[in-house]
Amino acid sequence: MDIKLNTHFLDVKETYLFSDIAKRVKKFQAENPGREIIRMGIGDVTLPLPQSVTSAMEEAVKEMSAKDTFHGYPPEYGYDFLRNAISDHYKDLGVTVSPETVYVSDGAKSDLGNLPDVLGDNPVIIPDPVYPVYVDSNLMNGRKVSFVAGNKENDFLPLPPADTNIGPSVIYICSPNNPTGAVYSYEGLTAWVNFALKTGSLIIFDAAYEAFITEDKPHTIYEIPGADTCAVEVSSFSKFAGFTGVRCGWTIVPDSLESDGIKLSKFWARRQATKFNGVSYVTQRGAAASLSGQGLADCKANIAYYKRNAAALAEVFTEKGIYFTGGINSPYIWLECPNNMGSWEFFDSLLNRFGIVGTPGEGFGSNGAGFFRLTAFGSYENTLKACEFFKTL
């Protein structure tokens, strides 16, 4: 074969972080058959879908079995009933988002990875530590990435660079953050919006975990004045409604996002129509059910369950005097490894001593070295078992 390959893929780590973790856990299980594993690594939900949501999906399946109500290819940008439900969701958050600017997809990760398709060769600014898809999808496209450091000094909520000569850039922000669980205040997020407006930049805002916010923090970037002229927002039903295995999310592309007389929404709509066949009718009916009435109440109850797990972990680390972020407005705990341990060293220690699986911080970037992510998506019983182990650190 003599064709040229996209050698920018060589700029990406050869193996995915969670693949490395899975290999280590598999080896541990082979060497320790029957040993209980408490999984607090991958951010995957464990509670079943609410009955109110699956009932809506069951009704949709029945519709698919009758000629008069059968649905074939879904609309490229989502059924109107779901786009309207998402628009109403934003109305409940106190902002106006037109249904026409809502693009339904198979999840936030897909959209975050696909957005570079419609953007040119711009400099990219990403906080570190960070969710890997932001970095990897840009490296795969040959983009130049620079980082702003999240650390203990700024509680892993970095503010815009002080350099006033920075030109138009693509900026990634995740709040509540994955992996750190930290959440921007109105002031912090306003600083980023003002920076984007001043430099002519675009913010890609990942709001996949907004449903976990308890304190008075912004749930959407569109709560910040001017954000509709400089920000795309990506969100998901994965954590909110437990759709990690069902797949559904959305991206907001305001009509006011324009460069060189071209609306960004025009390119995104064309990209989706060309490369994406839409989300199934059954899935979208379930997603819509999760946003109102009993479905919304049931999803909030599941979130409260996970937040109780996070609170239990946070209480232990507070009592131990171990520095951490998250645990209040997020399903993640981001803790400093005790005794100056490296993050992979701490991973091996937890696995071998207690059978606990977490995520080494350095897998999320150089600023994650010496830190560790735990998730609250397991059972309450296993979380309490883990808490007892953590008390012995």
Describe the fold and architecture.
The protein is an alpha/beta fold. It has 2 domains: 7-49 and 294-390, Aspartate Aminotransferase, domain 1 (Alpha-Beta Complex), CATH 3.90.1150; 52-293, Aspartate Aminotransferase, domain 2 (3-Layer(aba) Sandwich). It has helices spanning 17-31, 51-64, 80-92, 108-114, 132-140, 186-199, 264-275, 281-289, 293-320, 343-354, 380-390; strands at residues 38-39, 102-105, 124-128, 145-149, 170-174, 202-206, 231-236, 249-252, 258-259, 262-263, 324-326, 332-336, 356-357, 359-360, 371-375. The chain has a 7-stranded mixed β-sheet, sandwiched between helices. The radius of gyration is 21 Å and the shape is globular.
Give the SSE layout.
Layout (H helix, E strand, L loop, with lengths): L16 H15 L6 E2 L11 H14 L15 H13 L9 E4 L2 H7 L9 E5 L3 H9 L4 E5 L20 E5 L11 H14 L2 E5 L24 E6 L12 E4 L5 E2 L2 E2 H12 L5 H9 L3 H28 L3 E3 L5 E5 L6 H12 L1 E2 L1 E2 L10 E5 L4 H11 L3
Parallel strand pairs: 1-13, 3-4, 3-5, 5-6, 6-7
Antiparallel strand pairs: 2-8, 7-8, 9-10, 11-12, 12-15, 14-15
Helix pairs in contact: 2-8, 3-8, 4-5, 9-11
Largest sheet, if any?
7 strands, mixed
CATH topology of the largest domain: Aspartate Aminotransferase, domain 2
CATH H level, superfamily name of the largest domain:
Type I PLP-dependent aspartate aminotransferase-like (Major domain)
Please tally the β strands and state the result.
Answer: 15
Tell me the fraction of residues in β-strands, as a range: 5-15%
Name the helicity range: 25-40%
Number of helices: 11
Distance between the termini: 55 Å
Q: Which word captures the global form? A: globular
Task: Report the mean per-residue pLDDT as an integer.
Answer: 96
Per CATH, the architecture of the largest domain is 3-Layer(aba) Sandwich
